Amino acid sequence: MRLLEYEAKAIFSRYGIPVPRGKVASSPAGARRVAELLHKPVVIKAQVAVVGRGKAGGIKFASTPDEAEAAAASIIGRKLKGFKVRRVLVEERLKIAKELFLGIIVDRVTQSYVMLASSEGGMEIEEIALKSPEKIIKLPINPLFGLRQYKTTEIAETLGYRREKMLSLAELALRLFQVASSYDVELVEANPLVEVAEGTFCAADARMIIDDNALYRHPDLKERRLEIEAGLTSREINASKKGLAYVELDGNIGVIGNGAGLVMATLDLIRLRGGKPANFLDVGGGASAEKINAALNIVLSNPKVKVVFINILGGVTKGDEVATGIVGAIQGKPRRRPIVIRLTGTHEEEGTRILQEAGLQVLKTMEDAAQKSVELACA
Fold it and tell me: How does pLDDT run across 330-346, given as a tens digit for each residue?
């Protein structure tokens, strides 16, 4: 679950991380009232769960309530990177002395949190890594012992701070870790984390992604989840209930794969061949026949889908289970749309036999399967 900025900042504030004063508004008149209450220059920020809002026109500055109202009117109701803006955050404009980056991510390799820090704030960590990799500090956090203050003090010192500022930044980093561990985050960051003119630090922007599997431990986010589901299609909601990672797109080639990386590569390959994917669907590792069956039925329920491309690289996922699920999903269907399959790995031979006996063709490479899918979709 991706929290909106104002939601993440509310959590930050509860954990003692300073954030700018401000309120959410759902109308231009509401934005004006907030600006009047703050009684100083403000920033108007679109509340959508995407990055790069500033470059997309979703962040505007205002010196007066009139300007705040006009800025909000130009943002609310428009689409920003495919998401409709329903509300804006109106907050005080800070006097910034320096911008930093401070965040925590999950490292799948070490199976632990890693704190990232940089003296280059205000841009994505990937951009920092590309432009100034030497400025990124990485601190793996031992899951048994947690994060100790002497470690965050070392980070603050490496960023160039001494005495009171060093201790203040070290304490803020500890509190960010408390947010991460308390909310089961996949990512949390203050970017930019700014040093304001008064010599203190403030999270000018906040971003949080919470592990969906841990949401049952956070009843305070129940309303947020309902709000998210209200904006999903019926297929996306159905897929979520069945434990499938499904996102609807605007193309006509349905895509099913196992593993987010493989599915993303499949989408890219379809695009490269001139086709348009209709969805992203990751069945995950070790998917059962029932899960494959459910995934295929969800994709086929989309009337825009002209052909389905199933791309399976078997490891813990077994080819015969996949094949059984596919055959079960198409049996008895009055109208069959083409299904292109690439199946390799564990129990590949048995899976291929099951599919061929059902009259389905299995291609050897994902490149050939992508090309075939595009040809069928364009026919």
Answer: 887 766 789 999 999 99
Chain segment 236-246, per-residue pLDDT in tens:
888 888 888 89
Number of residues written out for the chain: 379
Preceding amide of 192 cis, omega within 30: yes
| Structure-block tokens of residue 331 | 């049996």
CA dist 123 → 5, 127, 196, 267 (Å): 16, 6, 18, 27
Amino acid in the structure at residue 352: T
319 exposed, middle or buried (CB, 10 Å; 0-12, 13-18, 19+)?
buried
Tell the residue number behind the tokens 């980093």, with chain if given. Answer: 173
Place of tokens 């399967």: 369
Residue with tokens 């930044």: 169
pTM for this one? 0.66
| Cβ atoms within 10 Å of 139's Cβ, excluding its own | 18
Beta strands in the chain (DSSP E): 22-25, 42-46, 59-62, 79-80, 83-84, 88-92, 96-107, 112-118, 136-141, 185-196, 201-203, 206-210, 245-248, 253-257, 279-282, 307-314, 339-345, 362-363
Closest to 17 (Cα-Cα) out of 201, 183, 182, 161: 201
> According to the model, what pLDDT value does residue 276 have?
94
pLDDT per residue as tens digits for the range 302-312: 999 999 999 99
